[in-house]
Amino acid sequence: MSPRRHLRTVLSCSAAALALVPVLSQAALYVTVIQGLGGQSEYERQFTDSRSKIEAASLTITDADKLFSFSGDAATREAILAHFKTLTARMNSDDRAAIYLVGHGSFDGDTYKFNIPGVDLTAADFKTVLDALPGRNHFLVNTSSTSGALVQALLGTDEKASNPNYVIIAATRNGIERNATQFGRFFAEALSSASADTNKNQSVSIQEAFDYAQRAVEAYFKDAGRLATEHAQLRGDGAAQFNLSRLNTLQIAAELSVADNELRTLLEQRQAINGKIEDLQLRRAELDNATYLQQLQTLILQTAQLTEQIDALQKNASNSNSNSNTDASTAPAAEGARQQ
Amino acid sequence: MKAPHTLRSATMAMGFILAAWSAGTQARDQLYGALDNTALLACETLHWSGKQSEADTCYRGLLAATTPTAIRAEAAWALGDMQGANAAFQAAVEQAPDSALVRLRWGELYMQTYQYQDAYGLFSEALERDPTNAFAHIGAAQALAQGSNSEEVNQHMAVVMEDFTSAPGARLRGLLMMVRSSLEKDQYQKARAFLDDAKALADANHFLPLEAYALEAALAFMTHQPYQQYIDAALALNPAYGDAWAIPGYFAMITRRYRESGDFYEKAVAAQPNHWEAHLELGQNYLRLNQVNPAREHINISYTGDAFNPKTINFLRLLDHFVQDMEALSYPNPPQGAFPKLTLRLAKKETPILADYARQLAEQSIDLYTKRYRFTPKEPIVVEIYPNHEDFVVRSIGMPGVGILGVTFGYLFSMDSPTAQHDPSYHWGTTLWHEMAHVFTLEASGHLVPRWFSEGVSVFEEWRTGPIPGRKIPLPVFKAMAEGKFLPIAQLDDGFMHPSYENQVIVSYMQAGLIFDYIDSEYGFDKVVDMVYRFKEGDNAVNAMETVLGISASEFDKRFKQFIDIEYGPLLSKLGVWQQDHKASFAALQDENWQDAIAAAERATFSYPDYVEIDSPYIAMARAYARLDDRDNEFKTLETFWKKGGYEPRALLTLGNHYAERNQNDDALKVYRDVLWANPFMEELHLRLGNLYLAMNRPQDALKEYHVLLALNPADKAEANLKLATAYKATGDTAKAMEYLMTTLDIAPQYRDAQKLLLELSRGGNN
């Protein structure tokens, strides 16, 4: 099976998949990827590669009609701002927006600019876009040089300030860090990396992608024996709960492809227990450690047992599919043999 | 022939202080005729004859407003009021802007407060006003001597010393400086001659020969002669003259005879309780002997009397750091004899990572050296490992900013942790091995082993018995070799102590190491050890060599040269070609021309197969093969690199993974363990090692590695905890297994592998 076919399968199932993942994911996610000017072929290649990875990863968690990408000559200020105007009108207050800026930035001491063909996007443009989005669960990552200046323009110079409506990440601490950044490529890489998924829930959250990229940047400069010229920052709450991609799309697809009531019931039961686990973890401070761990253990045992049953049912289903496929695939051969 | 080394060893140093004229005598010096104010001279006479109380009363009498401002400044200075003296000198300069003398004396005040640049500026201003002022030239020379500009020092000295009409007091100070300099270079005959001149000059001009006596005592100490009579002579003139003890104490210190040095300084502060410099040196010396409490006591005393000394501040900060951030671990605990064999002093945050490996390596080296040097340590050996390089340097020499990696004081040595170094070639295991060899050569010889000898033995041990055996000789050394820059052994100490060209220190390290490689191969290692014991009997290196090897130093030099010609002649003839190929291999790698990189690296490794430093052509070759997805050749290249002594951690980690994939577990284990001595702070290393141990059914060893992994605060804490749970389960400790498993599931409730283990444990499974 080609990767392309895998993707189609997943996409065809993704809307249904949303029903089986935690609460936040039930809202629609609109992803916008903007690739700015590279200036040099090396950066063009790098930015294109990052954009491709972000697009592919986003399609594991949202539908194709909710993914918007701007690059090359099409990435003009006019087109991008028009897109956000349309998007704002289309979204409701439960929906979320994820905005990726991949490219170079500049800061003249006063104004941050994201470099695109023609007139650049400015910090004021991004403020207008973010302020206009309905609801309060949005995300913007700016991987450009000097991107810290955008954060300062949006949130002020207080390093703890944040906006309740969105999580924002910048590749640099401020507008003084002007060197081309490494953060973006690692952030894009994180979205499809199992090692970024530190809570093993088969999804990569904003926080996990940020942690992965931040560590990778540190290692990059250490290995190169150079002082780090960039220091990424994350502002806002809820980064750990906001998933940007899924790693087990095939599995989800497989689970959903089985129109089996028993299986569906088990999946729903497991989802309910996972919800209880999340709830328990949120209430941790109210319990003593032993009680907490005991309750956690009980719930996880339940979900583990359900997973075992689900796996067994799927295996059976897979075997029977496989048997019928085998029958199907052997039939023509037999037929062929008969023809001979 | 083995591979070049980077400059790693060049920066390893034993407890030598970079020479400074002022050491041991930061206190206000005698005037030696620089001033002629009768009232001040009367006070000076009282002061320098040890009548301190009367002298203080006398100086206080000079603080009156009627006293000339410059003399008031001198009185304030003598009473320890540095700020008052400074203000008075400033006023005096304003009153007499053309006076060279006031600027000269003001410069001397700045010398005493360690502001050498400012002092030099004032001496220069004095010389602008009086270009022949001999005292100003000597002052300028002393100020410049704190840096490294020996040419300018010599120019100022020459003005005074070559003009016999110069002020006798200035000439005397110049001669005393030359005595010190000669003693620091072990040039005892020169020191003798300068000292005789100094004493004659002092005698002819009725100067108190206090410092001359102290230097006489130092010379006697350095040449193993009785010295007490000279100290007594100085004390007879001035019973409160602490320098009578402190000056020999300084020379004991720079020759690493720390116990004797401590004794001298103890007596210095007993004779002169306000000798702040001696208190500081005594405190530092206690630290070298691992006696932290008395060290703090004397350093505190020094600070109360002299808050200007940056060394004092540095040590006080270090001592705070000792208490707050470091911990000492002794092995075995409890001790099996009168004392533990080993004490590790580590940063608390690094203990979980380093302690076990440092202990293994230290104990291994102690056991080995005990046999090789026929010497059983009489005290615990203390190994300090610092995660902050500047803390380590301050601990070692008092001031930051020096590029050393390890310093041995005797039974105690300190060194950089791998985290203290940004240099990717830093190999902490080799540093520890090197310094431990110093412990044995120093202690077995009663701290009388010459510098070059001790360094050479340590380098030789790195190559012969260390964690990455094989000669590691860096490129500049081959260049020096080709240019015939190796020194005769009689002068080899100069290569360490007074280098005259760039890289001479590293060249000297390597030459010294090669000398012992030669002695070992030609005469046997026992002869090396025999020589160590000759030093204890008072032999110098030349005598020891003649006695033990039966040949003269010049004959030895001749034979050693033949050895070098045979060993390295062929390589030296094609060094240029090798360099071109080496460079080309990495250039091609950069340009992503994988085949060209391989071809150039093959040529380089053909002409010089043993170069296995971190920029080895083998590395370029292996990377190129990896990019071509030629795993078999990548593996073979890395295997060759490792077997020749290569230690680049990522390359070895890759090789270990190759071995593990090929089920060559024993080889994988050896390679992974080699990485520990280069960089134990790599998460992947401990994960791989733990997995390997589990595969080899060694769950206890796996546990250690997984605990280190967790201590490294890995990104994937769920995995690290699950590994620990799995390893505990393998040891049969299900309670611990469940503890780590629940930590895992708390972090990652949906972690399938952890859920499976939970099911298994809840069902009582043990597989």
Number of domains of chain A: 2
Strand runs of chain A, count = 11
The shape of chain B, in one word, is globular
- Secondary structural class of chain B: mainly alpha
The largest sheet of chain A is: 6 strands, mixed
What does the average pLDDT of chain B come to? 92
Instruction: Estimate what percentage of residues of chain B fall within beta strands.
Output: under 5%
Gap between N and C termini of chain B = 51 Å
CATH class of the largest domain in chain A: Alpha Beta
Quick synopsis:
With 340 residues, chain A is an alpha/beta fold.
Task: Provide structural commentary.
- The complex is a heterodimer of chains A (340) and B (767).
- Chain A has 340 residues and is an alpha/beta fold.
- Chain A has helices at 3-17, 41-58, 77-90, 123-132, 148-155, 183-190, 206-224, 249-257, 261-282, 289-339, and strands at residues 29-35, 67-70, 96-102, 105-107, 112-114, 121-122, 138-142, 166-170, 203-205, 233-235, 243-246.
- Chain A is globular and about 60 Å long.
- By secondary structure, chain B is mainly alpha-helical.
- Among the domains of chain B are: 1-13 and 448-573, no CATH class; 574-679, Serine Threonine Protein Phosphatase 5, Tetratricopeptide repeat (Alpha Horseshoe); 682-767, Serine Threonine Protein Phosphatase 5, Tetratricopeptide repeat (Alpha Horseshoe).
- In chain B, 66% of the residues lie in helices and 3% in strands.
- A five-stranded mixed beta sheet of chain B has the order 1-2-3-5-4.
- In chain B, helix 3 (69-78) runs antiparallel to helix 4 and helix 11 (210-222) runs parallel beside helix 13 (243-254).
Keywords summarizing the entry:
heterodimer; A: 340 residues; alpha/beta; Rossmann fold; six-stranded mixed beta sheet; three-stranded antiparallel beta sheet; disordered N terminus; B: 767 residues; mainly alpha; Serine Threonine Protein Phosphatase 5, Tetratricopeptide repeat; 5 strands
